[in-house]
Amino acid sequence: MTHAKKYILFLLLLTTGCKSTNDENNDPPLGEKGIELKSYVAVYFELQDIELTVKKNIIEIYEKIDQKISYTCFDTDPEKLLRYDQYCERYNDYGYDSIVAYPSSHGQYPNKYFSDIFTGVDIISDKDFDSEHPAGTSLSDICTFYTLSPLEYIKSRYTDFDWENYVNFTEFKELFPNLITQRHNYITAGRGSIYPIKAKANDLTEDDLTLLGRGLDQGYFNDPFAVIKFDAVPETTGTHNITITITNTEERIFSDTVTFEFE
User: Fold this and answer.
1) What Rg value do the Cα atoms of the chain yield, rounded?
2) Backbone dihedral region of 111: left (phi > 0), alpha (psi from -120 to 50 degrees) or beta?
């Protein structure tokens, strides 16, 4: 590493970065002691595509990602750390200065979210839904979108969301059972750094679709990062091929199709 790059790295580490509370080598931390974060989000990664699954009467949305396309507070490459700092600056995510519980398996980074800012979610069917929704037209006005995001937590200067008194707590617990009940320092019944988002798919704002993700790798928690519920049933029940498309500010399109049985 050149002297110039070392100097840039030193300057960035003054405001960003993270360190293990377990050792002095700043290696990715292991065990229960956790990690000290200067910013809440430790990892930004790019969404590659989405994958849909059907569970009872809902459609779950999972991510497909390339682990290599990520920017973390662990980076020692000045260019990647600079990119990480730019994301922190975008959300004014400075001053968190907290120790976060950390999974004991190597490589499981905490507080991991999409770098993408999404602009919309659309849902269509290959069959006529009703007179107002013929095949191929948007169903976003009759679908509710559920997800979780730390954006408002960061905006509030790290004020916990009051899950215990949230009117839709039970509903979110059913949709994201592992994230809501077993997430260590991320979400518990009485405090949470991730805020719930529930809105008609056609009413979603850019803020609703920013900093999405489950916070940890999919292998650690198998909950989806988002869920779609239909608020109506088609006039003729049966099998529909449902396509969900998510777009981002860079005009990238993420899409998948799943078979859904309306009863």
Assistant:
1) 20
2) left
